[in-house]
Amino acid sequence: MTAKILIVTGDAAESLEVLYPYQRLREEGYDVHIAAPARKKLQFVVHDFEPGFDTYTEKPGYTWPADLAFAEVDPGQYAALVIPGGRAPEYLRNDPELRKILKSFFDADKPVAQICHGPLLTAAIDGLRGRRVTAYPALEPDMQAAGADFQDAEAVVDGTLVSSRAWPDHSAWMREFLTVLRAKAPVT
């Protein structure tokens, strides 16, 4: 049976941070599902860096259907979890169904890949305390407040947790996550 991987996201997620791991993990042979607050077509965004701006800009991105709603997810059916960034984590961290899903993965020590603003979700369930992580650099104070040791690096591996700063670091992020996956949940 092919190992399943769950991506949790919502509207305003960064397009590349959802679709790159979705396609890369499928290419590797995993069965990948996208869960959101409801089954619907999600509207992603593109975050980019423009000259003269102090922060990233946001433009409309791709749309993509959610395979299932958070309430339909059985975490026991999944070998690993991917948490993209964008603005979605800002409101998703308040979803009680999603918090149950996240807690289940952390309690079972299953592989988790998080990127950019995604660690706001794991911070919301107290999943970062005592761990080494990276995130979008502006989140360094949030990561420290969550009890994490923030490191400004392309990818940081702490056991089964693999974190990355943002989409420019995708290659390092997926390379490290696939190393963890191949050890914990190989494709059969």
UniProtKB/TrEMBL annotation:
This is DJ-1/PfpI family protein. Belongs to the peptidase C56 family. Transmembrane segments: none annotated. Residues 4-178 form the DJ-1/PfpI domain. It comes from the Bacteria. CDD domains: GATase1_PfpI_1 (cd03169). It holds the Pfam family DJ-1_PfpI. InterPro entries: C56_PfpI-like (IPR006286), Class_I_gatase-like (IPR029062), DJ-1/PfpI (IPR002818). Coiled coil: none annotated.
